[in-house]
Amino acid sequence: MKFFIDTANLDQIREAMDLGILDGVTTNPSLMAKEGIHGDERIRQHYVDICNIVDGDVSAEVIATDFEGMIREGEALASLHPQIVVKVPVIREGIKAIRYLSDKGIRTNCTLVFSAGQAILAAKAGATYVSPFIGRLDDISSEGVELVAQIVDIYRYYDFDTQVLAASIRHTMHIIQCAEAGADVVTCPLAPILGLLKHPLTDIGLEKFLADHGKK
Ligand code: G3P
């Protein structure tokens, strides 16, 4: 399972890289705005800065919602850096854009996915990644992780190449549940990743080992 970090914060990206477990980055317009990154030029430069920190894929989202606009933006984003994956929303024009971009060899991440049907269309269109948003489903009393498992089953059944990228992960348990469901990638902020490390018996055990080592 790959770990992506879901942030546009360069310090957090560096920190995750430093841990040695980072496989890529996902961003969205809200995450860019949260870091105070505004305007096309500034946003594009920020994507390049992120690519220069990490080795893996970096998702960069289109803003247009019409086919022509999406492919224009998608081609411009893809030309910024070989690590860029163009993030496209799962709407009618988006599916057309994903087909167009994948036929041109441009990798895509189909985003804002909340149903198995949307995930099937993303795979049929040739998306590199599909992003089910599990936390936002949980927010409306739906089981987000169940959607991840359902998509994984369908993709395996038909041998689709599209990778299941579990997004909108809010806590450490989501990561474990996505791993059990067979997600190819999880993307989340740094805190839930660091949460995987926590266990009181590890802390107690280490404290005792160090104390015993000091004894004569
Ligand atoms: O990048 C998309 C996704 O991970 C958003 O997460 O927490 O805003 O639902 P969240």
**Would you identify the regions where 5 or more consecutive residues have pLDDT less than 50?**
none
The helix content is: 40-55%
Structural class by secondary-structure content: alpha/beta
* Overall spatial form: globular
Q: What compounds sit in this structure? A: SN-glycerol-3-phosphate
Instruction: Count every beta strand, where a strand is a DSSP E run of 2 or more residues.
Output: 8
Quote the average pLDDT.
97
Counting DSSP H or I runs of 4 or more residues, the number of helices is 11
Radius of gyration equals 19 Å
Q: Largest sheet, if any? A: 8 strands, parallel, barrel
Beta-strand share of residues: 15-25%
First-to-last CA distance: 45 Å
Q: Helix and strand succession?
A: EHEHHEHEHEHEHHEHEHH
Spatial arrangement of strands, main beta sheet: 1-2-3-4-5-6-7-8
What does this structure look like?
This protein is α/β, with parallel strands linked by helices and 216 residues long. It has helices at residues 10-19, 29-34, 40-53, 67-80, 92-103, 116-124, 134-139, 144-158, 172-181, 190-195, 200-214, and strands spanning 2-6, 24-26, 57-61, 84-89, 108-113, 129-132, 163-166, 185-188. An eight-stranded parallel β-barrel has the order 1-2-3-4-5-6-7-8, surrounded by seven helices. Helix 6 (116-124) links the parallel strand 5 (108-113) and strand 6. It is globular. Bound molecules: SN-glycerol-3-phosphate.
Structure summarized in a few sentences:
By secondary structure, this protein is α/β, with parallel strands linked by helices.
